[in-house]
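Quick entry between incubations.
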Amino acid sequence: MNKENIFIREAEEKDIPEIISMIKELAKYEKLLHKVKISEENVKNVAFGNNKFVEILIAEFQQKVCGQVIFFKNFSTFVGKPGYYIEDLYVKPDYRGKGIGKTLLNEVIKRAKEKNFGRVEWAVLDWNVSAIEFYKNRGAFPLNEWIIFRLEEDKF
Amino acid sequence: MNKENIFIREAEEKDIPEIISMIKELAKYEKLLHKVKISEENVKNVAFGNNKFVEILIAEFQQKVCGQVIFFKNFSTFVGKPGYYIEDLYVKPDYRGKGIGKTLLNEVIKRAKEKNFGRVEWAVLDWNVSAIEFYKNRGAFPLNEWIIFRLEEDKF
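Done. Structure below.
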């Protein structure tokens, strides 16, 4: 592994097709591909438009796009400070084991630290043992008592 | 119960002491009061300053503040649209059973619908059976397979 080969940069509009492709690859791995409806326009609106609030970082390995992290601000009423919520962290299968996921995660954490944020949070599927191990090794802990509830728009 | 007596309004800066007080009451109910560090300045920064991104609605019953909901935008890479994440939903003990919590929740859902958002989400403690029942009755479902991971700032 040579860290020198890993390069993290802000996503640009030209990356949108690749961003969607990686969102779908992650969804497929999570066995949730049938749930994905995102369009190029959706990504443009939330990450590049005037009302952008979603941040996307792209990982390159030897000049090739190999992963991404998609995140946005959240807020804790306990800590009283903003934090980051990571929606997607993905590394393409051929590029795993090179420290790319860790580099992407660390970049988000570094930005949280620079902004004096209070937390970084994300969700993981309970059967994704390798991801859970990876997150614990970085110092994160599971909120086992908490259950996420979701209301979808057909119930609005 | 008389719904006419329930009034929902945007929080104002003058509400900040009451907002913090209700955040602490909720934390106490969740047995997490020792975790609460939020200050008046924190609330001002995130909900009323130039960089505000947190929304707070106040419930009044017969002109008295009796509850609040604190929420902010999130984003789903599956749906491709923003949604709302509810950080706190709280009704003071003396005012429970009057439909105030439901009115607050419905107001957030109404706003999500108006903005064409994709989801409303929140987290609940697994022993809070009455809240879970309340949320299921409104059409929400638990994401039982997902575990929230948290990295706190001492690990940044």
